[in-house]
């Protein structure tokens, strides 16, 4: 393990040398790409252009689609392999020495650059027979809308790296998958899939045919399921830092969006093909963590939702109205999520509790309806783009074309805003913790941080037994000492619990009692944490006695700076949120613009400088 170390890494931004090296890596990729673009747009023959022509002939696709789609697909796969490797590294070993000290960051960084490069390649190769609707880059340069979307999503992902360093310098490190700039990188990386879907539809519009074209459709739908599910990784691993309702909403959204799109696109059995792609890729993502001795993420398989959506399609039909997505979303978000509840009992480190299932089904049903509406909207735009030729599309009112998709998007956005922010514990909540030495510890996968081994058992008396008795989870927890552990406490009396497994109290370990109470309260009673001078965090000694439950984020993210002015936090969140929201709004506009209106003059799009 390349990250094993004895001391505490820096808690702020990267060293200047690593910034220079990252910039050089960027230049190595994009300077040759810039030369290619200049030569290609000047009408000169290039090696890349000749290869793109050959790939187009072999694949039955235009030159601006075949090679860029392959580059984008491989780049997105590399980035996700890196993400599924990176998150367990941080959970087991803590923060990095710097962005280039972590081996998992290389496939992420080069993957995101490859995604951006794929959009640039497609735009540069855009000559000859182009779609009816194109994006004007210059006086004699127009590109398919899918090219622009791939370029835009890659740009957001790549920009996440320098923004991440700025964020760390201002606010300290946030060792969580859902850190604001991390969301930009992951969102930018996975967004390439819907860009490829749009580019494929534009290729079909100009006559792309053949096996490659037919196969890529369902493969891309499965890839979208796989990519979007990356946001569930902390839940899959067992150390989520956001409420379980967020997991329920995301499962409902992702499952209904991707599976409704699949069923509308490929008819009976389309959802099963998507599931096959999803499950195979998740097996691929498990390889590097397993080889590296890290925890491997589990998963909810979307099987129940897929079966329900297939049944709904048979019963009510999968026509072009809004009835099918609404009914499919409701059924998937109730009956389907009941099935996923059962899968959670078998597969999830933190199973969905039966006591909270009614509330979960309410939020899950709403999220599923929203996701199904978005999936149906996306399918219709893809179908319109593929069918659009030299004639304008028939005029349709807004409510027919876009209202369902807009309602779905606003619904899921509102749901996520309502459930994603953890709440602090109620005042006065505390635990009386009695520690006893354990003669035997647990196996550590990647020992680091030194210290004399000490393992303790804890008996915990919680001041509010009713709150603990209705918990979403109540776990003994430890991480970042070379492994991580989480296990439910065992109730021994009313309000009194004991740890099921001994907890480490030495070295770089951070241990405590996690309590997630309905519906968003996430709190922790600390047991042990080392002194962290780089983060200005004092030692928490492992001794018996009373402990206040604190905001969980203040313990799990001890590296966050506490002296940064609130106004900077506000500006930072608003800026990142605006970029993320703007990215999705831009994508929706590209889809709508590609599918509607009079075609661009054919002579203008094929003219050379």
Structural summary, described in words:
- With 609 residues, the protein is an alpha+beta fold.
- The chain folds into three domains: 9-209, no CATH class; 230-424, no CATH class; 430-548, Immunoglobulin-like.
- The chain has helices at residues 16-41, 47-59, 63-93, 105-124, 145-171, 180-190, 192-205, 211-228, 233-237, 244-266, 270-285, 287-291, 303-316, 323-347, 357-387, 398-419, 465-469, 552-556, 566-595, 602-606, and strands spanning 134-138, 141-144, 430-437, 455-462, 471-479, 484-488, 490-493, 496-498, 503-504, 510-517, 521-528, 545-548, 550-551.
- The strands form three sheets. Strands 3, 4, 7, 8, 9 and 12 form a six-stranded antiparallel β-sheet that branches. A five-stranded antiparallel β-sheet has the order 6-5-10-11-13.
- A hairpin with a 2-residue loop joins strand 7 (490-493) and strand 8.
- The longest helix has 31 residues, at 63-93.
- It is globular.
Secondary-structure map:
Layout: H1 16-41, H2 47-59, H3 63-93, H4 105-124, E1 134-138, E2 141-144, H5 145-171, H6 180-190, H7 192-205, H8 211-228, H9 233-237, H10 244-266, H11 270-285, H12 287-291, H13 303-316, H14 323-347, H15 357-387, H16 398-419, E3 430-437, E4 455-462, H17 465-469, E5 471-479, E6 484-488, E7 490-493, E8 496-498, E9 503-504, E10 510-517, E11 521-528, E12 545-548, E13 550-551, H18 552-556, H19 566-595, H20 602-606
Antiparallel strand pairs: 1-2, 3-4, 3-12, 4-8, 4-9, 5-6, 5-10, 7-8, 10-11, 11-13
Helix pairs in contact: 1-4, 2-3, 3-4, 3-7, 4-5, 5-6, 5-7, 5-19, 6-19, 7-8, 7-15, 8-10, 8-11, 10-11, 10-13, 10-14, 10-15, 10-16, 11-13, 13-14, 14-15, 15-16, 15-19
């Amino acid at each position: 393990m390349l990250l094993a170390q004895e001391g505490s890494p820096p808690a702020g931004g990267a060293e200047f040398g690593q910034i220079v090296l990252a910039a050089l890596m960027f230049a190595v990729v994009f300077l040759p790409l810039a030369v290619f673009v200049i030569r290609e747009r000047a009408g000169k023959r290039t090696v890349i252009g000749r290869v793109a022509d050959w790939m187009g002939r072999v694949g039955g696709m235009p030159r601006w689609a075949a090679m860029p789609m392959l580059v984008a697909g491989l780049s997105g796969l590399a980035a996700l392999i890196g993400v599924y490797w990176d998150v367990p590294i941080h959970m087991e070993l803590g923060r990095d020495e710097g962005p280039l000290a972590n081996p998992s960051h290389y496939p992420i960084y080069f993957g995101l650059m490859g995604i951006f490069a794929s959009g640039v390649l497609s735009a540069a190769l855009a000559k000859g027979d182009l779609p009816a609707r194109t994006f004007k880059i210059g006086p004699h340069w127009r590109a398919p809308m899918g090219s622009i979307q791939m370029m835009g999503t890659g740009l957001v992902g790549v920009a996440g790296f320098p923004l991440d360093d700025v964020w760390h310098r201002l606010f300290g490190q946030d060792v969580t998958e859902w850190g604001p700039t991390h969301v930009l990188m992951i969102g930018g990386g996975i967004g390439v899939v819907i860009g490829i879907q749009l580019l494929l539809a534009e290729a079909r519009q100009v006559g792309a045919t053949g096996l490659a074209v037919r196969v890529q459709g369902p493969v891309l739908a499965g890839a979208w399921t796989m990519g979007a599910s990356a946001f569930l990784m902390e839940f899959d691993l067992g150390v989520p830092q956001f409420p379980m309702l967020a997991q329920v909403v995301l499962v409902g959204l992702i499952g209904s969006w991707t599976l409704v799109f699949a069923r509308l696109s490929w008819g009976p059995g389309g959802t099963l093909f998507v599931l096959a792609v999803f499950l195979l890729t998740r097996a691929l993502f498990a390889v590097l963590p397993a080889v590296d001795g890290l925890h491997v993420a589990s998963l909810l398989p979307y099987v129940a939702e897929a079966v329900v959506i297939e049944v709904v399609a048979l019963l009510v039909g999968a026509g072009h109205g809004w009835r099918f997505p609404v009914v499919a979303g409701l059924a998937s978000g109730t009956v389907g999520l009941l099935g996923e509840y059962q899968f959670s009992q078998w597969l999830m480190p933190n199973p969905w509790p039966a006591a909270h299932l009614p509330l979960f089904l309410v939020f899950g049903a709403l999220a599923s309806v929203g996701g199904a509406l978005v999936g149906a909207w996306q399918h219709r735009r893809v179908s319109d783009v593929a069918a659009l030729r030299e004639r304008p599309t028939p005029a349709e009112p807004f409510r027919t074309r876009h209202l369902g998709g807009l309602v779905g998007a606003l619904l899921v956005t509102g749901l996520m805003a309502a459930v994603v922010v953890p709440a602090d514990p109620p005042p006065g909540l505390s635990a009386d913790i009695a520690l006893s030495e354990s003669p035997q510890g647990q196996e550590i996968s990647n020992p680091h941080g030194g210290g004399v081994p000490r393992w303790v058992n804890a008996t915990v008396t919680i001041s509010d037994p009713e709150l603990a008795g209705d918990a979403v989870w109540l776990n003994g927890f430890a991480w970042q000492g070379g492994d991580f552990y989480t296990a439910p406490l065992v109730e021994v009396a009313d309000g009194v619990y004991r740890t099921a497994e001994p907890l480490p109290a030495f070295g770089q370990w951070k241990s405590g009692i996690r309590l997630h109470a309905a519906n968003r309260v996430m709190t922790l009673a600390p047991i042990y944490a080392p002194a962290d001078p780089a983060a200005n965090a004092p030692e928490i000694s492992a001794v018996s006695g009373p402990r206040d439950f604190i905001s969980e984020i203040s313990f799990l993210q001890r590296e966050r700076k506490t002296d940064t002015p609130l106004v900077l936090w506000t500006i930072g969140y608003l800026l990142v949120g605006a970029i993320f929201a703007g990215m999705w709004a831009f994508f929706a506009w590209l889809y709508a613009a590609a599918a509607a209106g009079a075609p661009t003059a054919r002579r203008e799009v094929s003219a050379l400088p």
